[in-house]
Specification:
about 100 residues, mainly alpha, 434 Repressor (Amino-terminal Domain), Lambda_DNA-bd_dom_sf, Cro/C1-type_HTH, Helix-turn-helix transcriptional regulator
């Protein structure tokens, strides 16, 4: 679910995977793995990507998690599968 929320956030912002990778400071292959929910990616990479795309990180209410997972799946089916963007000025994401 977490990976899906990150992917949804990326698409909502209109960022390509390359753009998110640049902001997180990793390669695009790593961001592809994040989108798949790979366990090979460091948890810090997931947290950084989540923070950048505006995903809330913590809750322990199972009803909320199940509801959010259903909503997130429905939203992802409506969003485009890819984002194509023209290069623009670099954004300073240095915290």
């Amino acid at each position: 679910m977490f990976a899906g929320l990150i992917e949804e956030g990326r698409l909502n912002k209109g960022w390509t995977r390359d753009e998110l990778a640049d902001r997180v400071g990793v390669g695009v292959v790593t961001i592809r793995q994040v989108a798949k929910g790979s366990s090979r990616v460091a948890i810090g990479t997931y947290f950084e990507a989540a923070a950048l795309v505006g995903v809330s990180l913590f809750t322990n209410d199972l009803d909320t998690l199940n509801r959010e997972q259903t909503i997130q799946r429905d939203r992802l089916t409506l969003l485009p599968k890819r984002v194509h963007r023209q290069p623009q000025e670099p954004i300073d994401d240095d915290f």
